[in-house]
Every structure is written in C-alpha cells, then in structure tokens.
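Quick note —
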Amino acid sequence: MRTLESSAELGRAALRGGLVTAGSTALRFLMQFGTVVVVARILGPAEYGFAAVMLVFVTLAEVLRGSGLATAVLQRTDLNPQIASRVHYISACISAVIATLFLVLVAPLGQALSEPRLPRYAPLIAAVLLLAGMTAVPQALLARSLRFTLIAGVELLASATGCATAIALATAGFGAGSLAWQAATVALFTFIGMQCLGGWWPGRPSSRASSSPYVRFGLNMAATQTTRYLSQNLDRVLLSATSGALATGLYSQAMQLVQLPLGQLSAPLQRVVLPILSRLVHDPKDYAAFFRRALHVFVLALWPTMAILVVVAPDLVSLVFGSAWRGSGDTMRLLSGIGFAAPLVFGTSWVLVSNGRVSAQTKLVLAVALATIVAIIMGAKHGATGVALAVSISAVVGVAPALLLAVRNSSLCYSDVFTPLIWPSVIAATAGATTAVTQFFGLPPTTLLALSISVGLGTTALMCALIRPVRSELLSWRPALRGRSPREATTPAADPTRTTPTPSPQQEVSP
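Predicted structure written out below.
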C-alpha cells in the first residue's frame, strides 16, 4: 500500500484522478445507456418490471462494495497490511452470510412479491453479493493509494463485458435473466481486476483490538447504507406488490434514467474526493477550498442536465425506448427532485465521513430514510405517480437537516456550501428555459427533440464560456492534462467560489 507524501503529488494525483475517472465514467455511461435502450425495447415494460424487482436485490451488492469497512479503509490514517487483511476477511464473511440468507429466503420473497421466477435467478444474485464483499477492500486500497487509472480501467472493462452479455442474452430470448447475468459478469470481472491487477493479497490478520475502530466505523456506515438502500428500493417492491409488473417497469425505467447520470457522477467523485478530504481535514483552508471545487463541479455537471431532461423527458423516452414507455418520461419529471438534491446530499456525506463523524451521519440517514419510507407507503396507494412524488419531495426536504449537520462542528461555513451553487443554478435555469421555448415550435417530433436538446446544451456551453468564474474553474484543470504541478489549480485564485484577490506566489499554499 503506497502513500503519497508530497502535497504537490497529492494535488496532481487528485486532478489526474478526477480527469481519468470522468473520462471512464463518460464511456461507461454511454455503454450502459445504450444497453438500457436495447434491452428495454426487447423486454417491454412488464418483463422489465420483473427485472427491476430482481435487481433490487442485486443493488445490495453496491452497499457491500462501498461498505462501511471499505470507507474506513479510505478514511482512517492508521491502516497497515495486517489490519487491511482482517477487514477484508470480515467483509468477505459478511457478504457470504448475506448471500446465504438470500438463498434461504428467496422462495418466500418470490411469493410475497408475486414473482415465482425469482428463485430461478437466486444463485446469480447470491454470487453477485459474495463477489461484492470480496471486492470492497481491494478497491478501497486502490482508491486510498489514488490509483484511479487502474480502477477506471477495470470498471470500464467489466462494464463493457457486462453490457455485451446483457444485449446478447436479451437478443437470444433470455428475458429478464439477461440483466441478472449482466450483474454477475460485472461483479466477476471487477473482482478479478481489483484483486489481481491491484497487487494486494490478504495475509495474516491483525488482532481484534487493532481492527476494532474499523469495525465500529464500519457498523455505523453499514447502518447508514443499509437504511438508505431500503429507502431507495422500497418503492419498487411496494409497486410490484400493489400495482403489478407494468407499473413497476415504467416507474423503474424512470428512476433508472434519473439515477444513471447521477450514479455515473457521484460514485467516481466520491472515490476521488473522499481520500483527498480525509487527508486535508487538519488544514481547514485547503479543506474548504477543495470541497467548494468538488461541489461546484458536481452541481455544474448535473443541474443543467436535469433541467434539460425535465423539459424533454416524455418525448425523449418515447423516441428512444418506444411509445410503450412514454409513461416513464412523465414519471421522470416527477422524480427530478432527486437529481437536484443529490449534490448537496453527497456533499454532506463527504464532510461527515472525512471528519470521522459517521455516527452523526447514521442518525441523519436513519431520520431521512424513515421519513422517505413513510412517504412511499402513503404514496403507494396512488400508484407510480404517488410514489414518485413522495420520493422526490422527501429528497428535497432532507437537504436542509443534512446541510445543518455537515456545517456544524466542521471547518466549513454555509458560504462554502451555497456559493458553489450560484452560477450552476443560473446556468441550469437558463438552459431549462431556452429548452422549454423550443417546445412551442411547430416541428416534427424528432426534429423538435433534437433542436431542444441542442439548444439546452448549447446554452449551457455558452454560459460556461462567458461566465468568468465558471470558465476559470474549467480551465484550471489544464495543468493536470499537461503533467504540470497543479498549484495554480488548487490555490484560491483558481477556486471559482473565492472572491478574494489572487495572492502572490510567496503566499500560495499547496493542499
């Protein structure tokens, strides 16, 4: 496990890691979105609804892969090979227990959800869960060492193989099972890549006492992630039980279309941001500057995209997936609150975890998740529309307590959170408005959709070029591309949220 001692090297690794991760993320997004289009057209809403219920259990793998134990490996500073080995063994045992419990309970689960085919795919789902737990620590160690290029390469290969598997099997008539095989393929290739190419192998474990802080940290994070998982997946389970596979399929596709760009941004960003913030936690000035930049990038990438999608969602879904899926576009509009709230929710998580305040995060997530669960139960009686509104409103309302908790007892102030939102808000509102204006043009549907998206994206690009702080933020990434030290990209002068004068070179402080 190598370390980075030089602050200049740390900054350079952060910038390059962000760029590599962003590029890999964009490629994976294109592959996954293309796969979703092809498979959804082949399966249709009803069959896709069963697949969505099945994938509720598959997504538990993400909880295991990004578990509290893995987060502890990223956050704590006293890690050694023996502790890493013990944490790895614990993670593998937990995933094995969960996989076994799923195999035992899958039959009654299938009956409760009126999905008798669920046990047929249980071995695949169990394998995904087991592999996720065994991948968690090797991947966290790579992220801790800032080896983002290797992580990106492994994930890109795994995603490409999984997408090809899903399309081939769906075309061959495997139905919903094609998505289960896709998940298993991705899990297997990710495990092999992280474990073998990463160069780390578990050895003799440390004593129980030395690893107990990691276990306590992990338990708090596990409670947080498990509760969040339940609140994020209960909607599909309830819809399947109350409204049937068709409604579940339409709703699930809408949720996936909202979460796909969000997931492609949030997971890589967290992988880059969390290790850096954890190392800067004792340097309040640089910690706040890096947080502002990370939040600014997240919001700038997501909010204009969400604003455009809110306008064109029904027409876009109809064109891409077919007229049978148009209802997903209407539901997607109702779910847009999730996308707008997400950067602030994830930003809160970065602050709490990097400061080691996982118990506070656990309490926050428990409160917000319980409120979301209650809202989903109340909205389920109104079908997909009621559930979508309940989830979206809960996401927006949960932002306020999250921000209060993040700023309290941290080196941040409220301006560090709200200042990065100003220009992205203006850009998103303008992009959405110009996109909406095009809807009044009497053009054929395909032409109108292409024009609307082009105008929205063009407006976003133009404003990014014209607004000086935003342009400076984007240009500040150029030193990393040229292999130069990123001092000028990490000082207050390049921070788009700073309004203070540019310091002299003697006054600059590297992160």
